[in-house]
Amino acid sequence: MTIDRKDLDTLLETLGDSDRVRLTTLYNATVTTLRAYNEKSTAARLKDLQAAEKAFEEAVDDVKKRSGYGRPDPDMVIGKTSDVINWLQSEEYCAPGREEPIKSTKVYNDHRTGVFSFKDKNAITMTEVMAYVANANLEKSGVDHSKEIEALRLKKANVEYLKEQENLKRLKRENAIAEGQLVQKEDANLDKASAFALFEALLKHLVRTDSADWIARIEKAKDKPRALCELVYGGIDDSLDQVARMNEIPLVVKGGNDGNVESDA
Questions:
Q1: Is the pLDDT of residue 190 over 60?
Q2: What digits encode the pLDDT tens for the residues 133-173?
């Protein structure tokens, strides 16, 4: 529990009926579940206790914020710088990232650099002190930063995981390309262009060389369109077959004075 019975009673005296009933009910529920858990420590009773404590703590925090309970009087005068140091140390304020009470040398140095400022050096107010606390990012000793640290750790781990997954995808792709399972987009586009160009050349060559034969062969056919289609389709199938085997087609490389040299691509 974040508040004991004595502090709770003090807080209740400052509240209206609604908030007083609310906190009293939640406090009693916490005490009841704690007593039940002490009698028999089961997982279910521990869960009930934790839920009751959480509800009570959240209600206390809510009431304190709304009522201003425990908030120092902004016009209250603390005194000189030495008095401010004593007050900060008594309230367990620490420098950022430190656990020991703030040192006087830091307060005086912060005043010289303008982080801690005030109008009257003999009558420094609570408002000026709290402004210094905010400007210097002072924190109270024992503040639990475990949740923040855990959140940062998880965020970093997630970033590392995503980076690792990207590296694995990149390596898999590179290995697939090296093994011939994939081709680069530029290479694939080049292959497509080559295939289309080859098919166009073969089709034009087919029409140019076989058209006279087609005309002669369908001259006596009863169904000339059908007969023509059968002849053309056969030539197209042969052209497509050659495109499919384009890596096996022999290429002729023309040399300067050596004539033609044939090689298998």
A1: no
A2: 889 988 887 655 566 666 667 767 777 777 777 878 878 77
Q: Are strands 250-254 and 260-264 parallel, antiparallel or unpaired?
A: antiparallel
pTM of the entire predicted model: 0.33
CA dist 130 and 212 (Å) reads 102
Instruction: Give CA–CA dist 84/140, Å, rounded.
Output: 15
Average pLDDT over residues 44-61: 87
Q: Examine the pLDDT at 75 and tell me if it is beyond 50.
A: yes
Rounded distance, CA 57 to CA 176, Å? 58
CA 208/CA 46 separation, integer angstroms:
91
Q: Of the candidates 15, 131, 109, which has an alpha carbon nearest to the alpha carbon of residue 23?
A: 15
Q: Which two tokens stand for residue 168?
A: 């694995």
Per-residue CA distances from 146 to 91, 120, 143, 151, 182 (Å): 21, 39, 9, 8, 47
pLDDT value at 256 more than 50: no
The total number of residues written for the chain in this structure: 265
Q: Strand, coil or helix: what is 239?
A: helix
- DSSP strand pairing (77-79 vs 124-125): antiparallel
Query: Residue 255, SS3?
Result: coil
Cα 183 to Cα 138, 194, 195: the distances in Å are 59, 15, 15
Query: At 45, which helix (H) or strand (E)?
Result: helix 43-67
126-134: long-range contacts (C-beta < 8 A, 24 or more apart)?
Answer: 126/72, 126/73, 126/74, 126/75, 126/76, 126/77, 126/78, 127/74, 127/75, 129/78, 129/84, 129/87, 129/88, 130/72, 130/74, 132/84, 133/88, 133/93
Report how far residue 225's alpha carbon sits from residue 230's, in angstroms, rounded to the nearest whole number.
9
Cα 212 from Cα 214, distance rounded (Å): 5
